[in-house]
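Lesson 9: reading folded outputs for more than one chain in a single document. The general rule is that every protein is listed as its sequence immediately followed by its structure tokens, and records are never interleaved. Here is the first one.
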Amino acid sequence: EASETAATARRHSNTWNAEYAEYTALVNRARAKNLQRRYVATESIIGHLLDYIGATDKTPDSYTNAMNNDAEPSASDLKNALDTVGSSNVDMLIVNPQEMG
């Protein structure tokens, strides 16, 4: 049974490593393209990855401050974010579906 467990662990590890290699290659291809994308994010979790590929965060500071402090953005913060998303200044809206109710 121990050898079966070890074999299962190796199989899962190999699968994970292969998928991670694909993901890393995809991220590096996006970075190499230097597309200069601009985004607004409703959660900050993706920021480091998007910064790495060269994207620019256009999320209003007041909205970012609210989300980083686990607070709801004010009506004014939300309006500023929506206005920014509606402008031609943004290519992507990044939403964390786990946070949607």
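And here is the second record, again sequence then tokens.
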Amino acid sequence: MQTLKTAMAAAGRDIADLEMIGSTRAVLPDDNSRADLAQALEAIPEQMAQGFTTFCVKPSQFTDAPNGVGAFCREVMHRVESLTA
């Protein structure tokens, strides 16, 4: 990150203007299972400490129920709030 910050400053830009997008790392244990959400979200606090402010989560890695995506998203938000409080 320091290299990027230095290069942007040299170009007259501020790294604070760059949107940092992080993500979860889903581990799928086999071809028929979904990833563990709690495990995938464990990296979020560290990424936030590094300046990431937006995060991508792919619901299909964690649920097979299209009608449950709303509840899934609420669960993600609740878990992230708990991890970063």
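What the second record shows: The longest helix spans residues 69-84.
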